[in-house]
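Researcher: Re-running this chain for the archive, since the previous output was lost when a drive failed. Same request as before.
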Amino acid sequence: MASSITKSFCITCNKKQAFFTCSGCRQDFCEDHINEEHQSPVTQMNDFLADHNQLQKLIYKYMQEPQQHSLIQQIDKWERQSINKIQQTADDARTKILNVISDHVINIEKSLQNLSQKIEQIQNDEKFTEIYLREWRDKLDNLKKDLITPETIQIHKDDDHITFVSKLTVLIVEPKDLFERTAGNIRIDDNGQLMIHGQWSDHSAVRGKGEYSYGQYRFRFKIEELDSDKWAFFGIVSKNVPMRAVSISTPTAYGLAGQDGICLSGVYQKANTIQYQSDMEMNDIIELFIDCDHHIIRLRNERTHSSHELNIDINKCPFPWQLLLGLCCSAGDRIRILPCTYRE
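Model: Regenerated structure tokens:
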């Protein structure tokens, strides 16, 4: 019986029959590729020596210039990116400050001119006394303080413990309105920030100091005390209309009141088309949004999130507008105007 002979093929080309076996790797090769296999250790050694020399050079480089290490370069990259972010934040903050500071300075200049006119008039009448001088000094000091460190513009640093660098934010505290004029049984307290109803129950009204003819404004009020009848009025009125104790009958007045009442140009009604239902309670914070550009006002209760809007007929309520608030039911009812802060 004839014995079978198993043929092996070259491990490199897998085409030709292998006649040679490498004593090193124990693989079979054909005549064409055996010489290449004999040269392979030499080639591998050359490659190894080249890598060895390259590593030596890299070690020498890092010893001479440790700043070139990849870890240092990662830190340098982080530093550049962080500086760019800081510079961009600073540029944005400067732009926002410049957008509001010019108007602020103009307002300070107008206030100073008004003070100068009063001083000149009293000097001409030769009626100035120490009382006037103290009053002028207080106003001058307040104007200077408001010019240098305005309460309505603040720089806020967000010192978040998670981040290494504090985030810089511009805070605009606006509008800075105060109660200024009254009609009826009511008084203004706490430097114009608080209105307090008097000792007997009747309608009384308060107007704000500011005048609004363009732009959008948000005012926040806290109802610190309110009778069980739960009646208060929040709205606007034309500046040139004389004060009245009954806020809801004041010509040009628009606004929303307790007991589901609305006022449209001095006409008070409870049956209304906007389906307004009052939900004000003591300690509620009420937001009054005034949009002069689109001729609307909006009342929002921050506790209940209810919101109701009125369209203003500019012919019946011409600019400039002022805040108009009213109380009527009980002695000691109190409403406080709050600063409105928003982030830029």
